[in-house]
Structure formats: structure tokens, C-alpha cells
Amino acid sequence: MVRMFEGKDVRDSGSGNIGATNVLRTCGRTIAVLTLVLDGAKGYLAVVLTSRFISQESTTMALATAAVVLGHVFPIFLNFRGGKGVATSAGAFLALSGVAVLGAFLVFGIVVTLTRIVSLGSITAGALFPLLYFFIAHNSNTSLSLVFVVSFCSALVLLRHQENIRRLLLGTENKLTGQKK
Known about the structure:
Layout: H1 2-6, H2 20-27, H3 29-53, H4 58-73, H5 86-96, H6 98-115, H7 118-137, H8 144-160, H9 162-170
């Protein structure tokens, strides 16, 4: 989106990340929202289309979830240097359990509203999502493979935020301003 609308590579700006937060900081709200929606839709559609056209079996759904998140975080077309997986995971998880995603979104919103730090909201929601999924969506029809993949994807999101965690501990993490640089 940044290349299409701004004619530049977002990886050369701000944090160098291809995600919506860096797009917001470097290109503005419109392109950031479009990036967020498309990344989420990618995750959602991968799981929904797998369910519809391949199989609704939970192991297959787990594989689709893992594949779309790993493909976003380590894209072959970007030399395996992708995003942090937050929006794509959220989209995939939405296909698995909308109620659990709503809970995580509320946590994210509260944390960001109170701190103005998007990464802290993402880290908190990512850390809590496996518990939300387990207690809200896990039932006798849900296999352990889905619980495992949800936990794996959440851990991957946290791992991708290791630099943010370091800056949070140092008190130097960027706050959300919504201003285009």
C-alpha cells in the first residue's frame, strides 16, 4: 500500500516494519487503516476459505492458521522479513472465535487508550489471547491442535516484539501520536 500510494518502501522508514503502526507513523491514517484491514483479511480469509473448500477439521484449520501467520511474518517475497503478525493473527483468530478476539481487542483498546503505546497493547492482547481462546472457545469439538497453534502464533507475535519489549523496559518505546512524519 505504501509503495502504491506513496511510491516508497515502508521498510526504509520509521521502524522498518511493514505493519500498520509503522505505516501510520510514516504515511498517515488512511494507508495504515487499509494495511491493517488487508492484513487482518488475509488471516481471516485463509482460515475461512480453508474451512469452506478444504476441511472444517480442526487440525486443518490449525495448519491454515499457522501457515498464514508464518507466511506474513516470514514472507518469501520480502526475503523473510515481514510484519509482527498481530493483524494477520487477529484475522485468523477471528475465523476461529470471534468472542475471544473481541476480548483481546478490548484488552488492546484499554491498554492503548491508557498508555498510547500500540506495542504494549499488542503484547498484552497477544499474551492473553491463548487463555481467552481456551476458556471461551475451547470445547469438546476443538482439538488441542487449535489450542497449540493459537498459543504458537501468540508466542510468535510476542517474539516479534522483542525490540519493543526492550524499549518498554528502558522507557523509550514510541507512543502513538497519529501524526505523519
